[in-house]
Each structure stands twice: as structure tokens, then as C-alpha cells.
What does this fold into?
Amino acid sequence: MKWFILLVGIVVLCFFVALILGWAGGLGGGLGGGLGRPTSSLSHEPLPDGALHDEDLDELRFDVTFRGYRMSQVDGVLERLRRELREKDEHIAFLGGVAGAATTDEAGDRPADEAGDVNAEFPRA
It folds into this structure.
């Protein structure tokens, strides 16, 4: 019975020590590094308007908050990239359709002037 009381006393003592260390760490005087304090100013620069290049993504930085990156900044960049990829896919599909029409034009199925200008709908940036 004496060993059980000693064991319970050690567990309670460890609990209080952990509680005090956790409280002191929450005040900013903790023992470990952690993520640091959230940024107070926004250093994130959004993606430029117009066509994107590799350098634009290489220079992309997000602000760090208490638990990671700012979700609004990451969501904005992902939405922009999704839109760019969708536009490129549509352009590729359009060019594939025109190329298929040009192949049938050579066979004489359709006049070549009906195919139209490939770059009329999608001008080069």
C-alpha cells in the first residue's frame, strides 16, 4: 500500500510540473522554439496579372501564421493556377479541333476558309 501512495504522489507531482511548464511556455517564455509569433504585416505579393512564368512561382512566398500559412493567400494562388490550367486546356482542345478540321480540309471534305483563324479566339499573350 505504501508503494501505491508513493506512485500516486509522483504522478501528481509530474502533472503539476508539466502544468507549470506548459503555462510558462504559453506566456512566451517557453523552453522550446515552436513556430514563433504570427506575422503582423503581410509580405505576400500576389501573382502578377497576365501570363504566368516559372520565375513567378519561384519567387512566390506566403506569410506564416500561428499554425501554418495564411489560408486565404494559398487559396487565392491555387484558384489562379486552376483558372490558368483550365484556360490552357480549353485552348489546347480548340487547337486540336482546328487541326482535325484542317486535316479534313486537305481531303476536300470542307473548304479551308471555314476553319477560320486559329488565333482569332485565343490571341497570343
Summary: The first strand starts at residue 64 and ends at 65. The two ends are 83 Å apart (CA to CA). The chain has a mean pLDDT of 75.
